[in-house]
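It would be a great kindness if you could assist me with a short task in structural biology. A protein sequence and the structure tokens that stand for its backbone fold form the material at issue. I should value your view on which stretches of the chain appear to form regular backbone elements. The record follows directly beneath this note.
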Amino acid sequence: MIELPARARSLKLEVSDGEPARGWRKLYVGHVQQAHRGADLDCLVGASVAGIPRDSD
């Protein structure tokens, strides 16, 4: 379960220790950055869309 109390400015993830690390959990543990870094996937660091015009189709 994930709790995100915005007013308290906190993030709480409850996962049992017996749950195997696979699927999203494995991806999260291995590749999601800390909250102060945006909680984004590490493979997206440095990615930019600056070269794509806003009105491109």
User: Anything to note?
Assistant: Helices lie at 23-31. Residues 23-31 form the longest helix (9 residues).
